[in-house]
Amino acid sequence: MTSLPTPIIGLIVAVFVLVWLVLRTRVHALIAMLAAACIAGLLGGMGIDKTLSVITSGFGTTLGSIGLVIGLGVMMGRLLEVSGAAERIAWSFIKWLGKRREEWALAITGY
């Protein structure tokens, strides 16, 4: 068993690596999160096999419970984009909120 500060230090290092990879090096967020999870597991005292096992089971559980919703959302978004409906919705919100609040209109459209 590891002492308490070791996992906390591993978590702090992993968070800093995650932020650095995404913001500074522009690595894709999924790859950065996987790298940060590996760092947190290894610095937290787990072995390589245990770290990979925990990451795989966690990812599988998350994907199993939310994967269908994400897939359908991606398809719906693509249909809205191809048909021009997304652009029309955005322009409607801009017209409703005014030119001074374009950021809000686009944020509402994206939501």
UniProtKB/TrEMBL annotation:
Keywords in alphabetical order: Membrane, Transmembrane, Transmembrane helix
MF (Gene Ontology): gluconate transmembrane transporter activity
GO (cellular component) term, any one: plasma membrane
Keyword Transmembrane: yes
Record-linked InterPro entries: Glcn_transporter (IPR003474)
Residues annotated as transmembrane: 6-23, 30-48, 54-74
Organism domain of life: Bacteria
UniProt name for this protein: Gluconate permease
Organism expressing this protein natively: Salmonella enterica subsp. enterica serovar Poona
